[in-house]
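[Meeting: bench + compute handoff]

Bench side (C.D.) handed over the final construct sequence. Compute side (W.E.) agreed to return the predicted structure before the next meeting so the bench team could plan truncations. Sequence as handed over:
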Amino acid sequence: MGETGIDKARVRRSFSRAADSYDEVAVLQREAGSRMLERLDLVKLRPGRVLDLGCGTGTQTAALLRRYPKAQVVALDLALPMVRHARRKGRWLRRPLCLCGDMERLPLAGGSVDLIVSNFAFQWSTDPLLLYRECLRVLRPGGLLMFTTFGPDTLKELRHAWSEVDDFEHVSPFIDMHDLGDLLIRAGFAAPVMDVDRMVLTYAGVDDLMRDLKRLGAHNATVGRPRALTGKARMTAMRRAYEKFRRNGVLPATHEVVYGHAWAPERAAVKVDTLTP
């Protein structure tokens, strides 16, 4: 599996614009992030350096500062306004080291991180295999990668509603859990574990869902997305198609939450698969 067709420049712009409104609507992101960190209770790891990869506004960063009071916590995001929010987390003399950078080209030395945690950032990767290899590069032998991402059933109702209107891809594509596990192995990770949960948010109307997605910065970021503004007639048709999912007076928005973790092999030299599909 190679490139995903994600437009990285659009991702950066979208999340830069959403930085000030993100926390107001990131209910699912906070819940999934909390559930992910609970899994660290089962891991015997005392990290000296922790990387919050795709830190957003720093909610996860703050939790990692509390969990690992003796560790250096590094927060990295592609969008500079998000990094500015994350920089305020923690306490005086106990702030994260904040970096604005690309998760597929990490500005960190090889073998310099004990734990990488990422909450809903990996779905914006342009090349997941390259991303995993980069994570493995910066992890010390025996280090841990733990992440959440979205699976292909995410926003299935919205995807179906748009499919009845036109042939464009209005929702970004998401990779199946099993394919992600295979990519971790190809990248050189050991003992990957993947599982999935489904969370359903409800809305009074589809416009409320669309508004929340905008405030989150979660726009369609595919290269082949429609470039022109969506006309009134097509928007009306999409709303009508979405109404078929209404139950008990509300519209559901399904999110397939994928949890994954894997270990950097203990040996110093790691043989990895080629980047070609």
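W.E. noted at the follow-up: DSSP finds ten helices and seven strands in the chain. C.D. will use this when planning the next construct.
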